[in-house]
Amino acid sequence: EAQVTQNPRYLITVTGKKLTVTCSQNMNHEYMSWYRQDPGLGLRQIYYSMNVEVTDKGDVPEGYKVSRKEKRNFPLILESPSPNQTSLYFCASSFDGRDSPLHFGNGTRLTVT
Amino acid sequence: GENVEQHPSTLSVQEGDSAVIKCTYSDSASNYFPWYKQELGKRPQLIIDIRSNVGEKKDQRIAVTLNKTAKHFSLHITETQPEDSAVYFCAARAFMNYGGSQGNLIFGKGTKLSVKP
């Protein structure tokens, strides 16, 4: 089944403890992206990648890192999480990042205390 | 950069009525306009999209219209049903077919649609 898989679905952590949210797609998509969703603010892009080894900042990149060493994987790294990063995170991919549909993962609900 | 405004933020309709959600965008170079539906606790999913060379597109009970001059586009849902209840997001992007920098896909803040039986 074609899909975007994120793990974990739920994560509770403490301030400053490094964490990684994994994202993998099995559709051979070139484009991958991370969004955070907060009430009243919609979906805001954190980072995106047009292809392997090519990443770029979105609208809210502060406090996050990403890497794209393989086409299928696009992990999101929080080196030192803070409470304002408590949010619902979505990974998404599309064929070429132009006018092809975005496929979203199931989301990761992160709580930082 | 691109900015997308979406209205209304909440919309309540009776089953069978029509619902209209409107979005405006700021970047005249934007040429791709998708709409996503997010049911409670689930991921956003594409329901329809339109490109700037088309003024209107329909798919059964949903349709999208685009006015490039005014820089706004709208989602129309006819004969609404309770299962249409969800949050709807519009988005806009400027893309190029032959390389060059690609604009980000920028989302509106969402419209929570409630369809009352």
Structure at a glance:
By secondary structure, chain A is mostly beta strands.
How would you describe the overall organization of this protein?
The complex is a heterodimer of chains A (113) and B (117). Chain A is an all-beta fold. Chain A contains no helices and eleven strands. Chain A has strands at 4-7, 10-13, 19-25, 31-38, 42-51, 54-57, 65-66, 76-78, 87-94, 103-104, 108-112. In chain A, the strands form two sheets. In chain A, strands 2, 4, 5, 6, 9, 10 and 11 form a seven-stranded mixed beta sheet that branches. Chain A has a four-stranded antiparallel beta sheet with strand order 1-3-8-7, with no helix packed on it. The N and C termini of chain A lie far apart (36 Å). The mean pLDDT of chain A is 95. In chain B, strands 2, 4, 5, 9, 10 and 11 form a six-stranded mixed beta sheet that branches. A five-stranded antiparallel beta sheet of chain B has the order 1-3-8-7-6, with no helix packed on it. Chain B has strands at 4-7, 10-14, 19-25, 32-38, 45-51, 56-59, 62-67, 72-77, 86-92, 106-107, 111-116.
How do the strands and helices of this protein lay out in sequence?
The complex is a heterodimer of chains A (113) and B (117).
Chain A: E1 4-7, E2 10-13, E3 19-25, E4 31-38, E5 42-51, E6 54-57, E7 65-66, E8 76-78, E9 87-94, E10 103-104, E11 108-112
Parallel strand pairs in A: 2-11
Antiparallel strand pairs in A: 1-3, 3-8, 4-5, 4-9, 5-6, 7-8, 9-10, 9-11
Chain B: E1 4-7, E2 10-14, E3 19-25, E4 32-38, E5 45-51, E6 56-59, E7 62-67, E8 72-77, E9 86-92, E10 106-107, E11 111-116
Parallel strand pairs in B: 2-11
Antiparallel strand pairs in B: 1-3, 3-8, 4-5, 4-9, 6-7, 7-8, 9-10, 9-11
